[in-house]
Amino acid sequence: MYAEADLLPLSALQHLVFCERQCALIHVERQWGENRLTAQGQVLHKKAHDGKPETRDGERITRGLPLRSLALGITGQADVVLWRPPPGLRLTGRSLAEVVRTSQSGDFAGWAITPVEYKRGRPKKNDCDRVQLCAQAICLEEMLGVAIPAGQLFYGVQRRRFDVSLDAPLRDVTRTAARRLHELLAAGVTPPAAYEKKCDACSLLDVCLPRTLGGRSAAQYLHRELLSARSES
Ligand code: SF4
Q1: Are 214 and 139 members of one domain?
Q2: pLDDT at residue 151 greater than cutoff 50
Q3: Residue closest by Cα to atom 4 of ligand 1
Q4: Domain count, the chain
Q5: Atom 5 (ligand 1): residue with closest C-alpha?
Q6: For residues 73 and 54, which has the higher predicted lDDT (pLDDT)?
Q7: Which tens digits make up the pLDDT trace of 121-143?
């Protein structure tokens, strides 16, 4: 279990699974590159977070719910969480946020609780989005003492939600990613650049320079450039 002071941003898990170098550039070196894709993603997330809780077809919908897991050592927010109560039970009086804040293990027995993560593009081959969603579910499970077998990913291109099974292999990948995130940020060393096709969609392409740096770090690259400039002068 991690201490409160050691919690890391849940969103960093997605960066880590996409590319460890990107994760370190953002969370160690505090570099952030905005491109058209990330700007569209920010707008979609803002829309998903904005708005009051509402009830549709007997299902409560909350937005921007704070999350935390001491087991994973992460903290963040859920874009949307769907809460379907067991038959015959309805929330009255206290708001759902208050119930969540003060809940004891067992308060949500029998509820179907589903995190929904909003994404700008289309379903990906890699596990970035599924890991982020699974981490949200693990946070909710730890906070509420419930089991969450599935979540949903909404993709802006298709404008629909896709069910995601939060099975044992995905949970293993998520726990491993969380451990690796703590190791990477504790070490504070940015891995070297290595160009891959995914780099073309990376918001940090111009900072990272994977084609220019190859397998070298930025410091090694600068050192070599300086030596070359001196030998020419
Ligand atoms: S450009 Fe490529 S190597 Fe560099 S941070 Fe982005 S994905 Fe990683």
Answers
A1: no
A2: yes
A3: 208
A4: 2
A5: 22
A6: 73
A7: 888 889 999 999 999 999 999 99
Cα 173 to ligand 1 centre (Å): 21
Residue 59's identity, in one-letter code, is: E
- Cβ–Cβ under 8 Å, residues 152 and 79: no
Q: What angle do CA 119, 41, 207 make, to 5 degrees?
A: 120
CA of 199 to the centre of ligand 1 (A): 5
Using one digit for the tens of pLDDT, what is the confidence trace for 96-129? 666 666 666 567 878 899 999 999 888 888 999 9
- State the distance from the centre of ligand 1 to the C-alpha of 33, rounded, in angstroms: 11
**Best CA proximity match to 41, nearest among 62, 11, 8:** 11
Q: Which domain holds residue 141?
A: 4-191
Distance of CA 172 to the CA centre of its chain: 16
Local confidence band at 93 (pLDDT 50, 70, 90 cut-offs): very low
Q: Are residues 109 and 223 in the same domain?
A: no
Q: Is 104 in the same domain as 185?
A: yes
152 and 164 both lie in a single domain = yes
- Judge if 224 and 139 occupy the same domain: no
Question: 18 CA distance to ligand 1 centroid (A)?
Answer: 9
Which residues line the pocket of ligand 1, CB cutoff 6 A?
19, 21-22, 25, 193-194, 198-199, 202, 204-205, 208, 210
The stretch 29-56 carries a mean pLDDT of: 69
Name the token pair of 50.
């904005």
The CATH number linked to 27 is 3.90.320
Mean pLDDT of 43-51: 66
Rounded to the nearest angstrom, the distance between the alpha carbon of 21 and the centre of ligand 1 is 6
Claim to verify: residue 233 and residue 141 sit in the same structural domain: no
Q: How far apart are CA 173 and CA 70, in angstroms?
A: 17
Q: Which atom number of ligand 1 is nearest to the Cα of residue 22?
A: 5
Give the Å distances, CA to CA, from 68 to 9, 11, 72: 9, 12, 9
Q: Who has greater pLDDT, 186 or 35?
A: 186
Give the nearest ligand 1 atom to 203 CA.
6
